[in-house]
Amino acid sequence: MTYAALLKWAAHELNDAGIEGARREAELLLAYTLGIRREDLYLRNPLSEVQADAAGKAGGAASADAATATVRFQEVVARRAAREPLAYITGAKEFYGLTFAVDQRVLIPRPETELLVELCLEHLERRSGGKLSCEQHSSAGCGSQREQYSVAHAPFVVADICTGSGAVGIAVAVNRPDVSVLASDISAAALEVAAGNAQRHGVSERIVFAQGDLFAPWKSW
Asked: Is the whole model's pTM more than 0.85, yes or no?
């Protein structure tokens, strides 16, 4: 099938299922299936046969032939039509300009929650007089977690309670290299996802993850 035919079919299926922005989601799902960016779809002849990208992203049908890619696309469209969240299908969600890995172990970060990051960053800016209080924190030479995240090493400490995917705490840490984050969640599985996201965005050295309910892990800090 051609790109145009697949997108037309998928948009129709998703629209019938009551999915808002059916055309956009069809494009996102096709790009995911082929292992390319959504905008790359517009660089291809819409009347040409679908071809998977040999250098596609992990999770896409990079090594598949056209027939396999088409079948895979039909499968992910069916999942979305059945109301499975798009982020769980693609395994990724954009939040505060960053891409986070997500799956059924965590809730999907919501756009409204970006306001929490904004408020936190504004508060930190006021506290620091509009300047960063230190260079990128490094744990080299530090001993215990308490020493590593003392005021001497991190002028500001932010608590991310019920961290889930880690989106809030990681977004703050990425934007404030003078901040350390204490991130907790009652779910060990969720903490695995969050730790992976912290590593992905290069802030693992400034985040402590702990399992427990609400503030319980930090009572002794």
From this structure: no
